[in-house]
């Protein structure tokens, strides 16, 4: 027994796409066989059947209707599968023997372009990674097939930097060499839920010069590293081979350097919740959620890129900020601009569809409607004087020639399907007009035939109908058959209650109508293709216009949030100071009731206020305050106004955060291990222009180990001359507050807490000085721990404190300096740091750790002291002679009660 011809054809097609699920077109269905059928039936919840294939056993089979394929493909793609579409390449009715079939497209997670299943405000990136170990170089390329974006960069290989760069784009699919180091692959797979495709070394190398030069007219191989050329060639070749169509919209080879933008490591992006929340990965609750008031899908995607890649060039930042200010100062004009932007469709993705030959007539009408609004936008921009807005208005191409073609050619309400006619406007093509007239005349004749036959036969229920099987017919109910004149009709079909007839003249007119209709459909299709091809030649112009509109939309969004949220214009300083007056967290203030957010000031620089040690209890707002500072800096470098009364921002090249505990149990890493890995990454990669946020460093291990590590980290940041960067350091180790008098640049701050009886109230205010206690038991009480647990905790605490007070025995730290060797540092940090020899330190006894008190350390006055002062003032101001005896007794009782609470 041998395979049937059809099954052999299937297996031949499958040979070319072994890693895909093959959708094999059979009539009105896509069928899947063998292993593909078993996978698809499970993933898509389809009935698994069988089909005779010429072998002893039937081939497992399942299928879907071809017109419903998109939703099924989407489900498979979202699960990480690839789908190959094998279509019929000829009309089955005209085929001799088996119908020719071939793969017309391979759909992968990174090349999926169906707009109905893509997030409109988020790019769908595919990425390639090429690593050359001998040169210690790697290159990354990112493309979005739906928009035509193609970005490339190369760098000296550093795993942390590589992961950070990937996190900017969050690609759906990653292409790598099949010989890529397994550890590197594992590290990438642990952090990203991307689909992976391994390709041979030859795939990246072969025909690189020819393919890239053909695709990108401005590409010159000598301008780029060999590593970058191989990487970009592999990505482009993969896209070409899967899409199997023109890619004229992928026409700009955009090379960038990673140091052109603020570096934000992968953990910091997560901790700061820039585009999605930590808890449920949703947009709501992220910085993007607050800042995105864009009116177009293009603007939404562009704003996401701005947030992912803040600027570090002072003049570029100021250009954006000045533009936002001018929009704010011209509110009525800005409102007109927003109204115009609302009418703009997703030109970028429409251009992608035109380029891939996948656009329909309705989408071209959407493009026409968008182009119609461009002259209005251009006119509005002429009202502005700032450099950025003015230049955008000058450069904005109105695309009027494209508008005229579409306006003349395509009817305003066309069919969605290109094979149903109803596409071309009257007056655009003479032959189309004639065929439409013939079709309309024929249908008029059919309509009049029904009336005339009713009069001739006297049968009022007689009707003329049509179906695809028999064409036009005359239908007479059986009760009226005797009224038909002899020989007038030719019987065609018998029904239960009626007979259907035809006449020679009816069939003649049918041929004319159907002939005209078929010719019209084919002609309209051909003309539509011609119109589409004419527009495709202007892809680069449409893309440039789309880019300008997206940036205008972003600036408009920044102006809108500044107005609605009472943001201020930040001053971009060339000095190394950050000054924020009444700063607020942009997200938290939107999530709580209006006006209830407590603002805070911040002064931080690289000299006397370089590292701020922030103490205070959990839940008091330390982490919110730290994130708030980072987000204000980041927003300013995006070009946005910021949530503050006043802000002077020095440009930061990098932001690092180490906030929150995050066990990575699946990878076998504890909280402490993850914490130390993150801190190590920060110390090795930060520069003197960076901003660092460190929260509870060392808490994942024992008290003494943790305190020692935190102490040493602070020293390293402050004493390493090539680091000395702006740092916020939150801690529960109150012993660290003594560093203010020991290390230059360290300053103590704390979060205010008010004690009311045995309860505490968080004031959320950052004040100078260290906190005098942690209020851990009070916080536990707020969290709802049982009263017995709370009371016992207080007893244990009192016992420990009493024991501690009897064990103070201070001595100097030994002469052994804490050192950081060269092997633990980056190239820019190869120096030693040490603890000062005269630094006071510790005595361990009965599990107590004590630091000798330095009398020069300014202490924050506790709330107990404030309470005593207030009570004394109140007593001294009493006018006893004016009180009644009862008032006196009541006041005395109140004073005694309050005095006991303060004791």
What is shown here, in short?
The protein is elongated. The strands form 5 sheets. The chain has a 7-stranded mixed β-sheet, with helices on both faces. A 6-stranded mixed β-sheet has the order 3-4-2-1-5-6, sandwiched between helices. By secondary structure, the chain is an alpha/beta fold.
Task: Explain what the structure shows.
This protein is involved in the repair of mismatches in DNA. It is possible that it carries out the mismatch recognition step. This protein has a weak ATPase activity. One of its GO terms (biological process) is mismatch repair. Keywords: ATP-binding, DNA damage, DNA repair, DNA-binding, Nucleotide-binding. ATP binds at residues 616-623. It holds the Pfam family MutS_IV. With 903 residues, this protein is of the alpha/beta class. It folds into 6 domains: 5-107, MutS, DNA mismatch repair protein, domain I, CATH 3.40.1170; 126-260, 2-Layer Sandwich (Nucleotidyltransferase, domain 5), CATH 3.30.420; 292-399 and 538-565, MutS, DNA mismatch repair protein, Chain A, domain 3 (Orthogonal Bundle); 430-532, MutS, DNA mismatch repair protein, Chain A, domain 3, CATH 1.10.1420.10; 571-860, Rossmann fold (3-Layer(aba) Sandwich); 864-902. Helix content is 42%, strand content 17%. It contains 28 helices and 27 strands. The protein has a 7-stranded mixed sheet, sandwiched between helices. The longest helix has 33 residues, at 504-536.
């Amino acid at each position: 027994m041998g395979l049937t011809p059809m099954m052999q054809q299937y297996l031949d097609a499958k040979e070319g796409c072994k890693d895909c699920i093959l959708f094999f077109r059979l009539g009105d269905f896509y069928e899947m066989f063998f292993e593909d059928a078993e996978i698809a039936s499970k993933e898509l919840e389809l009935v698994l059947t069988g089909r005779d294939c010429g072998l002893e056993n039937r081939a497992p089979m399942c299928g879907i209707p071809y017109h419903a394929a998109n939703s099924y493909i989407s489900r498979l793609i979202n699960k990480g599968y690839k789908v190959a579409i094998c279509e019929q390449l000829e009309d089955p009715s005209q085929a001799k023997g088996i119908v020719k079939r071939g793969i017309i497209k391979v759909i992968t997670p990174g090349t999926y372009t169906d707009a109905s299943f893509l997030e409109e405000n988020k790019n769908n990136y595919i990425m390639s990674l090429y690593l050359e170990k001998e040169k210690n170089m790697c290159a990354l390329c990112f493309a979005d097939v739906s928009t035509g974006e193609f970005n490339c960069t190369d760098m000296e290989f550093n795993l942390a930097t590589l992961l950070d760069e990937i996190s900017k784009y969050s690609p759906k699919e990653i292409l790598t060499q099949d010989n890529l180091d397994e550890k590197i692959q594992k590290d990438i797979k642990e952090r990203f839920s991307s689909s992976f495709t391994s390709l041979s070394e030859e795939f990246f190398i072969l025909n690189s010069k020819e393919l890239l030069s053909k695709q990108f007219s401005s590409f010159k191989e000598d301008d780029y590293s060999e590593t970058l050329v191989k990487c970009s060639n592999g990505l482009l070749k993969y896209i070409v081979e899967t899409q199997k169509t023109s890619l004229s919209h992928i026409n700009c080879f955009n090379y960038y350097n990673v140091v052109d933008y603020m570096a934000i490591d992968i953990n910091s992006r997560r901790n700061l919740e820039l585009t999605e929340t930590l808890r449920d990965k949703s947009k709501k609750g992220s910085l993007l959620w607050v800042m995105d008031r864009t009116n177009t899908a293009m603007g939404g995607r562009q704003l996401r890129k701005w947030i992912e890649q803040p600027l570090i060039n002072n003049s570029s930042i100021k250009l954006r900020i000045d533009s936002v200010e001018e929009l704010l100062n011209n509110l009525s004009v800005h409102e007109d601009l927003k109204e115009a932007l609302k009418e703009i469709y997703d030109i970028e993705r429409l251009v992608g569809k035109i380029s891939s030959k996948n656009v329909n007539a309705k989408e071209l009408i959407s493009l026409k409607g968008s182009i119609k609004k461009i002259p209005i936008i251009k006119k509005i921009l002429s009202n502005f004087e700032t450099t950025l807005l003015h230049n955008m208005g000058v450069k904005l191409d109105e695309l009027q020639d494209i508008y005229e073609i579409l306006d003349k050619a395509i009817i305003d309400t066309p069919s969605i399907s290109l094979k149903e006619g109803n596409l071309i406007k009257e007056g655009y093509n003479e032959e189309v007009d004639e065929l439409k007239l013939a079709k309309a005349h024929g249908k008029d004749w059919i309509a009049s035939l029904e009336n005339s036959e009713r009069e001739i036969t006297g049968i009022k229920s007689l009707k003329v109908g049509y179906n695809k099987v028999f064409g036009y017919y005359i239908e007479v109910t059986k009760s009226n058959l005797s009224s038909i004149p002899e020989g007038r009709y030719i019987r065609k079909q018998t029904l239960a209650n009626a007979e259907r007839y035809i006449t020679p003249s009816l069939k003649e007119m049918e041929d004319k109508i159907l002939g005209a209709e078929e010719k019209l459909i084919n002609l309209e299709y051909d003309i539509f293709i011609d119109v589409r091809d004419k527009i495709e030649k202007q892809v680069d112009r449409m893309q440039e216009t789309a880019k300008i509109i997206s940036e205008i939309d972003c600036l408009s969004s920044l102006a809108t949030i500044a107005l609605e949220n009472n943001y201020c214009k930040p001053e971009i300083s060339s000095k190394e100071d950050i000054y924020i007056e009444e700063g607020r967290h942009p997200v938290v203030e939107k999530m709580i009731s209006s006006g209830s957010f407590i603002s805070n000031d911040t002064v931080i620089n690289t000299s006397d206020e370089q590292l701020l040690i922030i103490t205070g209890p959990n839940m008091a707002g330390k982490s919110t305050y730290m994130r708030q500072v980072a987000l204000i800096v980041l927003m300013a470098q995006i070009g946005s106004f910021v949530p503050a009364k006043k802000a002077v921002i020095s440009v930061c090249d990098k932001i690092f955060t180490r906030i929150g505990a995050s066990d990575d149990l699946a990878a076998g890493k504890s909280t402490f291990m993850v914490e130390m890995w993150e801190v190590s990454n920060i110390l090795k990669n930060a520069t003197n222009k960076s901003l660092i946020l460190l929260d509870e460093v060392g808490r994942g291990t024992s008290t003494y180990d943790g305190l020692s590590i935190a102490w040493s980290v602070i020293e390293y940041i402050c004493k390493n001359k090539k680091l000395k960067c702006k740092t916020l350091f939150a801690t529960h180790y109150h012993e660290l507050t003594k560093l203010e008098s020991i290390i230059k640049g360290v300053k103590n701050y704390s979060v205010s807490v008010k004690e009311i009886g045995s309860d505490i109230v968080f004031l959320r205010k950052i004040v100078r000085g260290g906190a005098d206690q942690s209020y851990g038991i009070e916080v536990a009480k707020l969290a709802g721990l049982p009263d017995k647990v709370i009371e016992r905790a207080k007893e244990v605490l009192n016992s420990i404190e009493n024991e501690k007070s009897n064990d103070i025995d201070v001595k100097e730290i030994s002469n052994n300096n804490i050192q950081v060797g060269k092997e633990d540092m980056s190239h820019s940090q190869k120096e030693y740091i040490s603890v000062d020899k005269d630094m006071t330190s510790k005595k361990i006894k009965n599990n107590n750790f004590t630091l000798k008190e330095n009398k020069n350390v300014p202490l924050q006055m506790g709330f107990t002291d404030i309470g005593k002062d207030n009570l004394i003032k109140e007593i001294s101001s009493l006018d006893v002679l004016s009180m009644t005896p009862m008032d006196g007794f009541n006041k005395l009782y109140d004073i005694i009660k309050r005095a006991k609470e303060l004791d």
